[in-house]
Amino acid sequence: MTFSNFGKISEHSKYLNYIKRTKNIRKVLLVGSGAVGKTSIVKVFKEKSSLTDLRDYELKYHRTHFLDLESIKIADLVEKEVEGVITFVDVAGQLDLPIHALRDITRTTLGAVDLVFLVFAQDNVNSFLELSKWVDIIEAEKTVFEEPSEVKYFLIQNKADSSGKIAKTLIDQVIQMKPTILHHFVISCVSGEGIVELQKALVKELFGGK
Ligand SMILES: Nc1nc2c(ncn2[C@@H]2O[C@H](COP(=O)(O)OP(=O)(O)OP(=O)(O)O)[C@@H](O)[C@H]2O)c(=O)[nH]1
Ligand SMILES: [Mg+2]
């Protein structure tokens, strides 16, 4: 690529970013180990119902093989007359797959991302420890894209209904070390606990006071 081409691409991406802002389009990437509930979070948002309230088969685990994209209107997330859409990019939890969306189609997963959900499951301490791997990949790749210069995160502790426990001091230490983690949520896709709070904070973060 020549430098003059690079300038044009940069202008183009500025223009796309302008469209994104004026049309209220935002992008959220969900990462975390397999079976922590990334796809379930998007499903619960989309269906406006906890997994328990959905039919039985919704509780079955169908792992995401590569990537799922889901766009949800803001009005479906919070009771506000705000026009706009959030596109959720939900990737496979297995980073060691020969093909992984975060590595192989980085632009699609990370380009113009507004917020990252770091998801772990309360009954799986490894899923908490493995979050650093995801952050490392994201931080290594982010410079490829012009915006945002700093990736912001929501830390999401799913499966609050389970009996598993992870020491709060450990979680607090990680939050202190990483100021770009804006919030920590304790949620359950099964019971619906914490989902409304997460949705409200999400819309507030992405659309401000609107
Ligand atoms: N107990 C409990 N189970 C949950 C909760 N959320 C999701 N699950 C279950 O956990 C399993 C995995 O959920 P998924 O949403 O598919 O997990 P994922 O993170 O998308 O997994 P991959 O696609 O493999 O990366 C499913 O059987 C869900 O029904 C929760 O809050 N509590
Ligand atoms: Mg999934």
Q: Which outline best applies?
A: globular
User: What would you report as the Rg, rounded to the nearest angstrom?
Assistant: 17 Å
- Percent of residues in beta strands? 15-25%
Name of the CATH homologous superfamily: P-loop containing nucleotide triphosphate hydrolases
Q: Mean pLDDT, rounded to whole units?
A: 89
What fold name stands as the CATH topology? Rossmann fold
Give a concise summary.
The protein has 210 residues and is of the alpha/beta class. The chain is 37% helix and 19% strand. The protein has helices at residues 3-22, 38-47, 101-104, 106-110, 125-129, 131-141, 168-177, 195-207; strands at 25-31, 67-73, 85-91, 115-121, 153-158, 181-186.
What features would you describe in this structure?
- With 210 residues, the chain is of the alpha/beta class.
- It has one domain: Rossmann fold (3-Layer(aba) Sandwich), CATH 3.40.50.
- It has eight helices and six strands, in the order αβαββααβααβαβα.
- It has a six-stranded mixed beta sheet with strand order 2-3-1-4-5-6, with helices on both faces.
- Helix 7 links the parallel strand 5 and strand 6.
- The longest helix is centred in the first third of the chain and has 20 residues.
- It is globular and about 50 Å long.
- The termini are far apart.
- The site of magnesium ion has 5 residues, from helix 2.
- Guanosine-5'-triphosphate binds next to helix 2.
